[in-house]
Write a structure and sequence with these properties.
Elements (H helix, E strand, L loop, with lengths): L2 H18 L8 E7 L2 H10 L7 E7 L17 E7 L11 H16 L3 E4 L3 E4 L2 E13 L2 E11 L16 H5 L5 H22 L1 H10 L8 E6 L2 E10 L5 E5 L4 E4 L3 E4 L6
Parallel strand pairs: 1-2
Antiparallel strand pairs: 2-3, 3-7, 4-5, 5-6, 6-7, 8-9, 8-12, 9-10, 10-11
């Protein structure tokens, strides 16, 4: 089969699996063997007028990105997917879309039999090792959000070899069996649709409650955070309505983190 034929077949398979879940997908599903970045590709399509819920999926990326411009290793065998969202109500609730995507990915992995935990702001962990990440990139107009491209990368069958095994994993390694990328993509999109509409109807707290239920158990514990050039240490207390992490600092004051890297500070052993 030609590359074009395989691409069309994968898109059709994904659409069929969504239909089996009761979802008639409302926009195009584009598949490519390789792209520099599914997010960059979909952002260009968004500027050209692509419809909400357009999906781009690639077998590999040559210039995949994570948060803060970091390289995201993207070898063949994993899931690299981006979806275009165009919220109609342009308000602050949409700042928690990355949290909604995290819940969707965790639930999709749960369908495969993996117990996934969510680490603020957008990592998905299995047994303490990263299995997936989310990158949300918004385009704004005078009225607020115009569109959001959500990029989702899941290590399905290949663990990135440029990262230590204690830091990352892949689904097949933890399950000791094969995982269908198309089926996983369908589960992610189906659950994302559920949480998107819940956020639209009920506001950010319903998403935050679901996210916190699946989060790593750091609440009330001391963490260290690196946000830009700031390094903070404090007790992880909660999320605010925009999804920012609330830290209680040593002097009793509170700091809000909208982005950054966080890790738990473990007590020294005697």
């Amino acid at each position: 089969m030609s590359e074009a034929g395989e691409a069309g077949d994968m898109g059709a398979r994904l659409r069929a699996q969504l239909a089996a879940r009761g979802l008639t997908w409302p926009a195009e599903i584009e598949h490519a063997a390789s792209l520099p970045s599914t997010n960059e590709h979909l952002k260009r399509r968004a500027r050209a007028g692509a419809a909400a819920w357009t999906v781009v999926i690639a077998d590999a990326q040559t210039a995949g990105r994570g948060r803060q411009g970091r390289r995201w290793a993207s070898p063949p065998g994993n899931l690299y997917l981006s979806v275009l969202l165009r919220p109609t109500a342009r308000d602050a609730r949409w700042s928690v879309l990355p949290l909604a995507a995290g819940v969707a990915v965790a639930e999709a992995l749960g369908e495969e039999g993996l117990e996934a935990r969510l680490k603020w702001p957008n990592d998905v962990l299995v047994a303490g090792r990263k299995v997936a990440g989310i990158l949300a990139e918004a385009s704004s107009a005078a009225e607020g959000f115009e569109s959001v491209v959500l990029g989702i990368g899941v290590n399905v069958s290949v663990r990135p070899r440029d990262l230590p095994p204690e830091a990352v994993t892949c689904a097949e390694e933890d399950l000791a069996r094969a995982v269908d990328r198309v089926g996983l993509a369908a589960a992610v999109l189906a659950r994302l649709s559920v949480w998107y509409h819940a956020l639209d109807r009920e506001g950010p707290r319903v998403v935050q409650a679901a996210w916190r239920t699946r989060s790593v158990p750091w609440w009330g514990r001391v963490v260290e955070a690196q946000s830009g050039d700031r390094r903070l240490r404090g007790i992880a207390r909660d999320l605010d309505e925009r999804g920012a992490l609330i830290l209680e600092l040593e002097d009793g004051s509170r700091a809000l983190l909208h982005s950054g890297e966080v890790h738990e500070v473990r007590a020294a052993r005697d």
